[in-house]
Target: Nucleotidase
Amino acid sequence: MKFGFDIDDTLLNLREHAFRIYNTKLNKQIGIEVFHALTTISVHEAFGLTVEEGREMWKSHRDEIYFSAPPFPDAVEVLQELVRQGHEIYYVTARSAEHCEKTKEALELAGFPVQDGRFYCGMGDLEKVHIIRTLGLDYYFDDKPAVLDTLTELELQLYAKDNPYNKHLGIPRIVNWRELLGHLPGGTDA
Ligand SMILES: [Mg+2]
Model:
């Protein structure tokens, strides 16, 4: 079967990583519980920054955040296991074109299975639906409500990667990546 994955905040723990980096750069010690209470995709609110200041902060540190964000626990191992079981893995990320090559390399470096021709990057959030439909994915995983909302009519198994800002969506969700193996036909999450 064909499995498609968003990258940021689906496979990589990007927001929490950004939160930690902002703490360091701004010389603050905002507690992680403040991060967990955030219901916005952006994290600058936790530091009392305005939208404009938040945008500047993100722009200044985006590369560092992108290329040092760690995978969520078991994400690498579960995707490797899917490949072992004979499945195809696709990545569909809206990171901008200038970051695509390095993003692909960083995924490989982190141990994610990246196969030729199965890495899609640089589209807008609302263009993902066209790629996902064309690829004929059987499963797709994303965190962003604006993306997930465009995919509900497709004939595939759609999952939200659980995050505070997508709790309102009434679709199946993955909290920990190990759960995915248990959702497969005949699968176990052992
Ligand atoms: Mg995402």
